[in-house]
Specification:
By secondary structure, this protein is an all-alpha fold. Helices cover 74% and strands 1% of the residues. It is globular.
């Protein structure tokens, strides 16, 4: 197999390039692997710049000599951009789940029932999965920063409208429009991280993004439970609007454009001006093909399998626990909105500990393989996911069995222990699978993010419609066993096969 440090165009993934270069060389040419970065051929000026700025030359990808190249930014500036985008992603899911404690209030105020109130969350989940396909080509042409600024400004206006709604129909309209506005970072967040960091840094930074994305779901009900009880559900939307306003100020004050035409600049092209007013940066035209471009990744098993596996895990180790928390605990133990909200801290704790463990585990497997073979195989990121699969299965079984065994009149904390264990595993799997898929196609990292997002959101959207029937038919213990079986067959087994094939090809 041949390995070359040649640039790949933005319209072609690394796997595409590797396949075309090596078709005639080896039957293994379609397998995407990397050798440890070799020292590239550089001009003396470029070499001196890299040594002065980074202190080394074995950088992957290779930065230009331009100070506006995001790879050349100081670390604090890079971290600020990641945290802003990660928080933005968190707010998207935070706002969708944050209204869960107010379902009863919505039903009373809008003259409907609790089940219909739940559609206010479901519509946001569905929209958050689809709309990033439309934002992705816009951000690729005009830049990330203007899109993020418009995103939070639009969401702020929609949340002000939500606070003023007096009917279920108008409220579900504002929730759908809010999801449209707030959704960009769910798709292009992975692209921003790829634009900012070198290969060895991405797993940890990807972990920051995925952690906050995951935490948005449990932290929304956790905090908004207090709001619902003490000052009423209308203030949920005012608080959402205030958060969006703070984001707007931070983006204007500290946001910087991460989309950088590196190849063109290195060939002598002038860097386009950037700012709050959208200006063309990327060369790709706005077209229908740009909207559906992420679907072309369906050709690659190294994207489809991680996307499907992650979506199943997210549905059964996160969504189901969050959705069932009010009925499982609130109804059984007569808990109010604030008390139900406090239960979500178990998911938060499990997710945080999971992310603290994910990056070291992934780095350990990658470094050990590289020491043995002298080359870098992205498939070794998948080793850490098995720790996640094991803990998700254990956590789900503890959660389901202990709920089934619990006395309805006596509060039992053990299901929450299971929820924390499952959340720990969910976060490890999230970091491992997304990092693997992005590394295999890092020139299309934003497309990968959009593709994975639609799997996660739409499978998560469908789940709440059949969860009640599943628990009624199989009870909680049986349903936990069923979900674990589905995880093994449709998530764990495909990942194991994918890793085996990729490793053998190395």
């Amino acid at each position: 197999m041949s390995f070359k440090n040649e640039p790949i165009s933005s319209s072609q993934s690394e796997s595409d390039s590797t396949l075309e270069k090596g078709k005639a060389e080896s039957p293994e040419a379609s397998i995407h692997l990397e050798r440890a970065p070799e020292e590239p051929q550089l001009s003396d000026a470029h070499r001196e710049y890299l040594l002065a700025r980074h202190g080394r030359l074995d950088l992957n990808p290779l930065p230009s000599m331009h100070p506006e190249d995001p790879l050349n930014w100081p670390q604090w500036k890079k971290n600020v951009q990641v945290l802003m985008v990660a928080f933005h992603s968190m707010i998207a899911t935070f706002m969708a789940a944050g209204i869960v404690p107010a379902y009863e209030g919505f039903a009373e105020a809008y003259g409907t029932d609790i089940h219909k109130s739940a559609y206010l969350t479901s519509i946001q989940i569905a929209v958050l999965g689809v709309v990033p396909f439309f934002w992705n080509p816009i951000a690729a042409r005009f830049g990330r920063r203007p899109v993020f600024v418009m995103s939070v400004f639009g969401a702020m206006l929609c949340n002000i409208g939500g606070a003023k709604c007096t009917s279920w129909a108008t409220q579900i309209t504002t929730r759908a429009l809010t999801a449209v506005c707030i959704s960009p970072p769910l798709g292009i967040g992975s692209g921003v991280i790829t634009e900012l960091f070198f290969n060895e840094e991405r797993a940890r930074k990807m972990g920051w993004w995925t952690l906050l994305l995951t935490l948005g779901v449990p932290s929304g009900p956790f905090f908004m439970g207090f709001v619902t009880k003490h000052i009423g559900f209308t203030w949920i939307f005012w608080i959402f609007a205030i958060l969006n306003f703070v984001q707007l100020v931070v983006y204007i004050a500290f946001g910087a454009e991460t989309l950088f035409p590196r190849e063109e600049v290195m060939k002598g092209a002038t860097l386009p001006k950037t700012g709050l007013i959208p200006r063309r940066i990327g060369s790709a035209p706005l077209s229908f093909s740009g909207i559906v471009a992420p679907f072309s990744l369906a050709r690659y098993v190294d994207v489809v399998i991680p996307a499907l596996s992650y979506a199943i895990i997210f549905c059964y180790a996160n969504i189901v626990i969050v959705v069932e928390m009010p009925s499982v605990f609130g109804t059984r133990y007569n808990l109010d909105a604030q008390q139900v909200g406090l239960l979500f801290i178990s998911i938060i704790i499990g997710s945080v500990i999971g992310e603290m463990s994910a990056a070291p585990l992934t780095s350990m497997f990658l470094q050990q393989y590289e020491r043995w073979t002298g080359k870098r195989n992205p498939a070794n990121r998948l080793w850490s996911s098995y720790v996640g699969f094991l803990t998700v299965i254990v956590g789900l079984l503890v959660w389901g069995i202990r709920i089934q065994q619990a006395d309805n009149g006596v509060f039992n904390v053990t299901p929450l222990v299971g929820a924390a264990i499952a959340s720990f595993g969910n976060q490890i799997i999230t970091t491992a699978l997304i990092s693997f898929a992005v590394e295999c196609h890092r020139e299309r990292s934003s497309d990968v993010g959009v593709f994975i997002n639609v799997f996660r959101q739409e499978i998560g959207f469908v789940g709440p419609f059949y969860f009640p029937y599943m628990f009624e038919t199989f009870n909680f213990a049986g349903s936990a066993g069923l979900m674990c079986g589905l995880i093994v067959v449709f998530a764990l087994a495909p990942i194991a096969v994918l890793q085996f094939v990729r490793t053998r090809a190395a």
